[in-house]
C-alpha cells in the first residue's frame, strides 16, 4: 500500500459546501487516516462529470468521492470513475419524500443560493453591523445589537462576531476591555447600559501571551504579567456584574459561536 | 392535517453545524414544504437526550429530526421520541470504516473543534487580514493577499472577503472603485502592481440602486444614473485590464466565494 495520503474528493454541482461540511465531519471520525482533500464545485454537466471521472481514473490511489449531485445523468457519468462513491443525499431523500408527500426538486443549487431575499439581506446586514461596530466602534449603535461581546485584546471577539453574523445572521458588536476599565467598581461607561446583552470571552493567560507575541513580540502588552493581569481583571469584572462568559482556549470560532448562541438564548436567523 | 409548519430539529452532541448544513440542503430539495427549524446543539448526555425526547413528544405535529450524535446510548435515548429520525452519519460510517480499515472514533466534537492549531490559526489570521485590509485600508499589505476584490461601493466586496477568510482561510483584501478611478486609462495606482491578484465584482445597476437606497436614501450616490455609470465604468475597467469579474446579482456570498475560488484558481486552506 502506498504511503501517499488517500485522495478524497468533495464533488458538487453547485458550491460544494454541503459536501465539504459533511465530508469533513465524516473524515473527523477517522482521525488516524491520512487524507488529501480536493473540492470540485460546479460539476453540472455530463462533460464536466466525464472530465472529472477521467481525472479520478488516472490517480495512483483509488479515491473516496463524497458527492451531492442532483441530476441523475451527471451522477451516473461521475460514478463511472473508480473509487468509493458516497452520495450524501441518496439515503435521505426517499424517507423525506415519503414523510413530506412530495418528490424532491431537481433544481440545482437550491441549498446555498438566495432563497429568501429578506432573510439573506438580514444576514448581510448583520455582517455590515459587525464590521461597523468592531472593536468598540460606533457604540451608539449597540442598541441594535443582539449581543455585545466583551473581552481583552486578542481574545477572539472579532472573528466570533463575524461568524455569528455570517452563519446565523446575529447582530453582534464587540467592545475591548483595556486598562481604564480595570480596578473600577462599575462596568465601562460605554457599555454599562447594555449589561443584559453583554457576553464575555476569556482565555488562558499563556495562550493569550502566545497570541499577543505573534502580533507585537517582546512588548509589555505581550508579557506574561500583563496577560495574567488582564485576564484575571476581566473575569473579575464579568463575575461582579453577572456577565456570562466563555473560556475560548482550545475552542474554535464555530464552537464559541454555538456556545454563545446557546448560553445567551439567541435565535438563529436562517 | 394542521396548517402549522412542520417542526424540523437539527440535533447534535456538539455545535450542530453539520446537521444544520446537510439538513438545510435536504430541505431545499422540498421547497414547497413549510417547515420551522430549531437547532439543539450539545445534546451530549442521556439527561439532555431524555429532556429533548420529552419535548419532541409534546409537539402538536410529529417532527423530523436530523441528528449527528456519536454516543450510541445518547442516540438511543433520543430515538425514543416520536417523529422521523434521520441519522446523518449512520449510512456512511460502515462503508468508510471498511475502506479505511479502521473503526470510527467515538470522540464527540471531532469535526468543528481545533484539530490542527497551525491551520486554524491561519484561518483566524486570514479573518484579521480581511478586517485590516477592508475597503482599501492598508494597501501596503496587499502583497500578502491571495486575492484583491475590486468593485464599486455596495457591490458586496467585504462579506465576500470575510467569507473567503472564515470558511477557506484565504487572505482576501478589497479595494473600492470610486470616481477618481473612472475615465482613466490605467488601473488605480494603489492596485496597479497587483493586477494578477485582482478579481472584480459587478451587479445589475437596479439592484445596486436598491442596496444604496437602503443605506443613503434619496442621495445622488443612490440614484439610477449614478449606479448605471459606476457599474458600466467598472466593467469597462475590468475588461480593459483583463481582470476576471463576476456578476453577483441574485448570487449568495457562499456562491460568490465558490466562484471566485474556482475562477481565480485559489486553494482552500482547510
Defining key terms:
homodimer, 270 residues, Rossmann fold, 2 domains, 4-stranded parallel beta sheet, 10 helices, 8 strands, elongated
Structural notes for this entry:
- The structure is a homodimer of 270-residue chains.
- Chain A has 270 residues and is an alpha/beta fold.
- In chain A, strands 2-1-3-4 form a 4-stranded parallel beta sheet, with helices on one face.
- The model of chain A has no long low-confidence stretch (mean pLDDT 95).
- Chain A has 2 domains: 6-100, Rossmann fold (3-Layer(aba) Sandwich), CATH 3.40.50; 117-264, Rossmann fold (3-Layer(aba) Sandwich), CATH 3.40.50.
- In chain A, helix 2 (46-57) packs parallel to helix 3 (72-78) and helix 6 (157-168) crosses helix 10.
- In chain A, helix 6 links the parallel strand 5 (147-152) and strand 6.
- The first copy, chain A, has 10 helices and 8 strands.
- Chain A is elongated and about 70 Å long.
- The relative contact order of chain A is 0.10.
- Chain A has helices at residues 17-28, 46-57, 72-78, 93-100, 117-132, 157-168, 189-192, 205-215, 224-240, 253-264, and strands at residues 6-12, 35-40, 64-68, 84-87, 147-152, 172-177, 198-202, 245-247.
Amino acid at each position: 500500500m502506498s504511503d501517499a495520503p488517500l485522495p478524497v474528493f468533495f464533488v458538487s454541482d453547485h458550491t460544494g459546501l454541503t459536501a465539504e461540511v459533511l465530508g469533513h465531519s465524516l473524515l473527523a471520525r477517522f482521525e488516524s487516516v491520512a487524507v488529501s482533500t480536493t473540492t470540485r464545485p460546479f460539476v453540472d454537466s455530463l462533460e464536466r462529470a466525464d472530465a472529472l471521472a477521467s481525472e479520478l481514473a488516472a490517480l495512483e490511489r483509488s479515491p473516496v468521492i463524497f458527492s451531492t449531485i442532483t441530476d441523475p445523468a451527471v451522477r451516473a457519468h461521475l460514478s463511472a470513475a473508480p473509487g468509493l462513491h458516497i452520495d450524501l443525499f441518496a439515503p435521505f431523500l426517499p424517507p423525506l419524500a415519503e414523510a413530506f408527500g412530495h418528490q424532491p426538486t431537481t433544481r440545482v443549487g437550491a441549498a446555498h443560493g438566495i432563497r429568501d431575499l429578506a432573510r439573506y439581506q438580514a444576514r448581510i446586514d448583520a455582517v455590515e453591523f459587525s464590521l461597523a461596530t468592531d472593536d468598540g466602534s460606533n457604540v451608539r449603535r449597540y442598541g441594535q445589537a443582539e449581543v455585545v461581546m466583551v473581552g481583552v485584546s486578542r481574545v477572539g471577539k472579532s472573528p466570533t462576531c463575524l461568524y455569528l453574523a455570517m452563519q446565523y445572521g446575529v447582530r453582534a458588536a464587540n467592545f475591548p476591555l483595556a486598562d481604564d476599565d480595570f480596578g473600577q467598581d462599575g462596568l465601562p461607561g460605554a457599555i454599562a447600559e447594555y449589561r443584559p446583552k453583554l457576553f464575555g470571552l476569556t482565555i488562558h493567560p499563556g495562550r493569550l501571551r502566545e497570541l499577543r507575541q505573534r502580533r507585537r513580540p517582546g512588548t509589555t502588552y505581550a508579557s506574561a504579567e500583563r496577560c495574567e493581569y488582564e485576564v484575571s481583571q476581566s473575569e473579575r469584572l464579568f463575575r461582579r456584574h453577572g456577565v456570562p462568559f466563555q473560556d475560548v482556549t482550545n475552542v474554535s470560532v464555530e464552537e464559541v459561536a454555538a456556545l454563545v448562541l446557546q448560553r445567551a438564548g439567541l435565535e438563529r436567523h436562517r
